[in-house]
């Protein structure tokens, strides 16, 4: 069993930010740090004081994390980016909001004395003496201190203060991982100070020393314990008075912390088997449990439940059957064809999740080139005459401004070209569409045609498919390509307008060019010839898509694509000095077997590291190569000797995505390291801690538990079952009430059975399974109150 924590983060928007540029505006973006570790960087929104991001992330991290901070920055091309302000949420704050923190938060100033990080290793003892007891403080080492100097390091020393006396350690030059092993003693007297203060400082020759953090120890508690040793987290100096909040603007956030104790797989088997029995072909009855889950799920958490159920059934090879059951349930309660799959039902939400999990690579292949073209061309496109601004367009000939009619005509041509290119790419992609997606659409098409067989409803099966493919998948990706990983940055205002108009055109095609869709915006009329042609192309595409019968049932399982791929820079000067100029650009591919590289994406790949040999994937200090975003992959070679490969990424997001992908696929490797060196071995010592033994144990903890959730994550069967259990436990009262009603109603005692079997009551079985799981959680060690030693461990 394991304790797992995750943070669901949505960075919505900012408002009333201060102007940092001479133009009276700013170019804001956000950096998200968990315990001072940069995890996420949003896209920059240019020239605005009220930016909108709308970016969502999920971070998996250890239960012992302390805080998550959101820094709003102003991007500058010629100088260092300016810090506008920050919002910091502690773990305790998030734990106090079980449904998540949601709302506006004022940005506060970033005070260098409060920007502390790292831990210090202390041994504290009360030593008996002949005349009086003595307080002994051994300052052993520190790790992950904040880099305060321009070289990306610090020159740390420690100041120990007690009862008016101060003692200091020696200075360790150019290290954020210093080792001192120095001991200090103080006399303990009646009426003496009740606290011992241990402060870490960065020594500076010219300017004042920089504060690195402090630990305050309660001497009375230490007197009772006599001896205490461990890693203590450095705390900021919060003695300064704050300026009034609100002058730096605000940030709208949605942040939710979830802690889960995941039991062994065997505990979840009864729940998984019961749910699978509901959807398995040939054994399903009316889908009673799935219907009840939908009935008792509130709108606000329906997407979450749909995604979890989908992943659970994907792991059991029953995703297509689960979705087919949802199609039948929705069709059974739908009387009007034009309302089919238009609500946020469990079927709609599950299909949205299914397309993202199973069809994202397909979407990138079809839509990616068109989106890239829109971004690169940056053409002015506008169809609404009331919004045309001729001055934004430029000249059509020899210094003659374009007329409004010319702008509109050119816009129609541009949009028709993009729409035609997209529909042509879609038409050619029948075989490229994943088999499990084709099979699911084929089942949907067949069910809808059976429910609405009349000639007047001949377009309804096509619209059912396009309601998911176009309206809930392709169009949202066009509107927000950054959120679908199609682009690294948000579009500017001009490109956003082009994307919006293209998305509207795709929606009209997806709606089969119905009169209702045409009536909404009459100025879209010039696109109608292309839209009508697109409808014919789309219907032909869907006909071919649902006509392909899968010969091999194994094709219906999700094919395992590369976990991660893309260009990286690798250090290739083996045995020579490590420098930032010794990196070579190659194309890397991470699969469930190996990390491989090639000169180009299409050339033959060579294996760099076998997956089973990886022992850690961690960041490298910026000062090591005088370069940002470098990671190290520590692995064993054929002789069993530890080796390190250094890889450089182009951004903090790419760095964390690669680290996350490597950590996920190596999570079950044997021999994973618990510590590592964040520096490099240059000359005769490590650059981080200055140790001279190259085989020395690392000076910092590995962060194998910090990962980012992605659409192509490996399935985690036990976690998905735990999340479903947690949801059902929350609606247990409603389920029991439903069971009481069914038990006393006319349907009591009826249920699907096998030959010679007594009638089954799935809901009663579910309630029994929930009770058993509840008992298993109560009796698990993780479910019992933490011990005193564990509390001290969490505090330090």
TrEMBL record:
GO terms for molecular function: GTPase activator activity; phospholipid binding; zinc ion binding. It is a peripheral membrane protein. Its main location: membrane. Residues 301-511 form the Ras-GAP domain. It is found in: Cell membrane; Cytoplasm, Cytosol. SMART domains: BTK, C2, PH, RasGAP. GO terms for cellular component: cytosol; plasma membrane. Pfam families: BTK, C2, PH, RasGAP. CDD domains: C2A_Rasal1_RasA4, C2B_RasA1_RasA4, PH_CAPRI, RasGAP_RASA4. Residues 1-105, 116-232 form the C2 domain. Keywords: Calcium, Cell membrane, Cytoplasm, GTPase activation, Membrane, Metal-binding, Repeat, Zinc, Zinc-finger. One of its GO terms (biological process) is cellular response to calcium ion. InterPro entries: C2_dom (IPR000008), C2_domain_sf (IPR035892), PH-like_dom_sf (IPR011993), PH_domain (IPR001849), Ras_GTPase (IPR039360), RASA4_PH (IPR037777), RasGAP_CS (IPR023152), RasGAP_dom (IPR001936). This is RAS p21 protein activator 4. It comes from Bos indicus x Bos taurus (Hybrid cattle).
């Amino acid at each position: 069993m394991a304790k797992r924590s995750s943070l669901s983060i949505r960075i919505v928007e900012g408002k009333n930010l201060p102007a940092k540029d001479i133009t009276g505006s700013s170019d804001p973006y956000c950096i998200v740090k968990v315990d001072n570790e940069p995890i996420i960087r949003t896209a920059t929104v240019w020239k605005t004081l009220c930016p909108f991001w709308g970016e969502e992330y999920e971070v998996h991290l250890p239960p012992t994390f302390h805080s998550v901070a959101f820094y709003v920055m102003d991007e500058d091309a010629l100088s260092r980016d300016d810090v506008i302000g920050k919002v910091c949420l502690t773990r305790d704050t998030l734990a106090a909001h079980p449904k998540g923190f949601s709302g506006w938060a004022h940005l506060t100033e970033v005070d260098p004395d409060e920007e502390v990080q790292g831990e210090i290793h202390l041994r504290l003892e009360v030593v008996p003496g002949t005349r009086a007891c003595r307080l002994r403080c051994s300052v052993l080492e520190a790790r992950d201190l904040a880099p305060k100097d321009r070289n990306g390091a610090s020159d740390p020393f420690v100041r120990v203060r007690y009862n008016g006396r101060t003692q200091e350690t020696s200075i360790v030059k150019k290290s954020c991982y210093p080792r001192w092993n120095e001991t200090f003693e103080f006399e303990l007297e009646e009426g003496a100070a009740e606290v011992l203060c241990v402060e870490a400082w960065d020594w500076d020759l010219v300017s004042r020393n920089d504060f690195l953090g402090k630990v305050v120890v309660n001497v009375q508690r230490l007197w009772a314990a006599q001896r205490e040793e461990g890693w203590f987290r450095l705390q900021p100096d919060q003695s300064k008075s704050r300026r009034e909040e609100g002058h730096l603007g605000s940030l709208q956030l949605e942040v939710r912390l979830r802690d889960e104790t995941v039991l062994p797989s065997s505990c979840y088997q009864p729940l998984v088997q019961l749910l699978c029995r509901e959807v398995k072909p040939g054994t399903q009855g009316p889908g009673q449990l799935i219907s009840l889950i939908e009935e008792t799920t509130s709108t606000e958490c329906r997407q979450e439940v749909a995604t979890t159920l989908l992943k659970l059934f994907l792991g059991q090879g029953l995703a297509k059957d689960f979705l087919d059951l949802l199609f039948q349930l929705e069709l059974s309660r739908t009387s009007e064809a034009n309302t089919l799959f238009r609500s946020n039902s469990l079927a709609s939400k599950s299909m949205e999740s299914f397309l993202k999990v199973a069809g994202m690579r397909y979407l990138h292949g079809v839509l990616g080139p068109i989106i890239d073209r829109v971004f690169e061309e940056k053409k002015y496109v506008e169809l609404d005459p009331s919004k045309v601004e001729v001055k934004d367009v430029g000249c059509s000939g020899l210094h003659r401004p374009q007329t409004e009619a010319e702008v509109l005509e050119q816009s129609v041509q541009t949009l028709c070209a993009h729409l035609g290119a997209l529909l042509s790419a879609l038409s050619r992609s029948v075989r490229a569409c994943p088999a499990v997606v084709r099979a699911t659409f084929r089942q949907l098409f067949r069910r809808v045609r059976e429910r609405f067989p009349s000639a007047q409803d001949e377009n309804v099966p096509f619209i059912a498919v396009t309601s998911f493919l176009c309206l809930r998948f392709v169009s949202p990706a066009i509107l927000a390509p950054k959120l679908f990983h199609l682009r690294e940055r948000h579009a500017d205002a001009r490109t956003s307008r082009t994307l919006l108009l293209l998305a509207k055109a795709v929606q009209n095609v997806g709606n089969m060019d119905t009169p209702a869709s045409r009536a909404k915006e009459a100025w879209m009329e010039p696109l109608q010839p292309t839209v009508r042609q697109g409808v014919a192309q789309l219907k032909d595409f869907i006909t071919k898509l649902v006509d392909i019968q899968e010969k091999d049932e194994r094709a219906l399982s999700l094919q395992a694509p590369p976990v991660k791929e893309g260009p990286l820079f690798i250090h290739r000067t083996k045995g020579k000095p490590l420098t930032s100029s010794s990196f070579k650009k190659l194309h890397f591919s991470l699969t469930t077997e190996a990390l491989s590289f090639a000169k180009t994406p299409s050339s033959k790949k060579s294996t760099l590291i076998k997956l089973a040999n990886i022992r850690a994937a961690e960041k490298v200090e910026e000062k090591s190569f005088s370069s940002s975003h470098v990671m190290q992959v520590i692995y064993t070679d054929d002789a069993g000797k530890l080796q390190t490969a250094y890889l450089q990424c182009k951004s903090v997001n790419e760095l964390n995505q690669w680290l996350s992908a490597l950590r996920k696929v190596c999570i079950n490797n044997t021999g994973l390291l618990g510590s590592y060196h964040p520096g490099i071995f240059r000359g005769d010592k490590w650059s981080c801690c200055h140790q001279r033994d190259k085989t020395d144990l690392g000076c910092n903890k590995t962060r194998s538990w910090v990962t980012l959730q992605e659409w192509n994550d490996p399935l985690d069967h036990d976690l998905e079952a735990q999340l479903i259990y947690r949801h059902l436990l929350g609606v247990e009262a409603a389920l029991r009430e439903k069971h009481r009603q069914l038990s006393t109603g006319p349907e009591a005692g009826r249920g699907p059975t096998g030959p010679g079997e007594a009638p089954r009551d799935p809901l009663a079985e579910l309630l029994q399974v929930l009770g058993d799981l509840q008992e298993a959680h109560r009796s698990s060690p993780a479910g019992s109150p933490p011990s005193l030693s564990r509390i001290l461990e969490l505090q330090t």
